[in-house]
Structure prediction request, 436 residues.
Amino acid sequence: MWRFLAEAGAVFVKDLRTELRTRVAFNALGLFAITTLAAISYTIGPYRIAQADRPYLLSALLWIVIFFAAMAGLDRSFVKEEDSHTAALLRLSARPLVVWGGKLLFNFVVLELLMVILVPLYVVLMGFQVLSVGGLIWILLAGGYTLAVTTTIVAAIIARASSRGALFSVLSLPLLLPLLIFVIQGTRAVAEGSAQGAGSALRAVVSLGGVMTIVSIVLFPAVWNE
Amino acid sequence: MSGGITIEFEELAKRFDMRVVFRSVSGRVGPGEVLAITGPNGSGKSTLVTILCGLVRATRGTVRYRAGSDGEIPRESWRDHLGIVAPAMSLYEELDALENLRFFALVRGVRDAEKRCRASLERVGLDPERKTQVRGFSTGMHQRLKIAQAILHDPEVLFLDEPGANLDPAGQGWLEELVGGQRRAGKTIVLATNDLREMEWGTSRVALSG
Prediction:
């Protein structure tokens, strides 16, 4: 287990270091998120939604921004390895699950970093009142993990395809739609302070994340090696 | 593992869609031997190397790795025993030489990684303290770094696909010494080349006709 963590950690550090020097994913995610947030806050703002509708609509808008930002940047993890001809050497050097673990950790960290910047901005600009901040943090962590684990395996599947951009969205959408529904419900529940609603949504998100993790562990070695 | 590794391949054929790259290629290379794969451009030398190292599956035929008394090595473990230099396999251009080697050492679980990385760089004539990203390297330095990466974990099998490409005469002389040293150390070497001088290093030869 320690060996796996050390090796996956090396993949994560390598990806983080190359990303900090090129900023391809950071720019794609950040620019999309900030542009969308600016557009939403300018057109809708904090006062153009009826008070009763606010928890639901603002939760939905928040996750739409996060979801599409993820679509804009998280496919890079494997595509970059193929485009820069480093994938073959990586295949011959690292065990498949080590690569998967490192890439997953990278995508998760990038997504959570995005949320750390985006969510407070969104709360302030949109006047989004959240009664259970702790609950929101759990929803963001679980939702971020499930989003990362799903986009990681889809990115691995599409990395060697010719029309990758379109494929990434097309393959991700059906897998991520249930997640999107549950995280929106969960965010609405924490905004309204409904512990029961938040708990059931959180359980659903964690279950989806668990299923996608198991599917990825089974599927990834074949996807990566063949 | 004692006794080194023998690679045996029989009746290998490879086809991409309708294009036949080669058909019915057989051979064997053992510890302390150098198998030279030769042939004109497009004859499938690099393809044969990628099949022998387990990166690509042959359309037909078999490849086996045998390790002395330990018997056959399963395909998923081949990577633990081999090092490779190939034109189509790049290193990370955003990292410097030491960062690249440190990464490959860590994912391979190499012990004394830092010491081994520095020793490998010095062995190929690169300065471990140089902080230039690989994107700023000359093609010759790039090739030296690829060779350092291939020998970093002291593999029992070494695949060298056009290893002398972009090396200056001094580098080619040093490469010849390296291959000779690896051979004397009982390593199994597969060499794909069109260079007449490099072909001479081979103890056996597979000629692809194209």
Notes: The two ends of chain B are 37 Å apart (CA to CA). Residues 6-207 of chain B form a domain with the Rossmann fold fold (CATH 3.40.50.300).
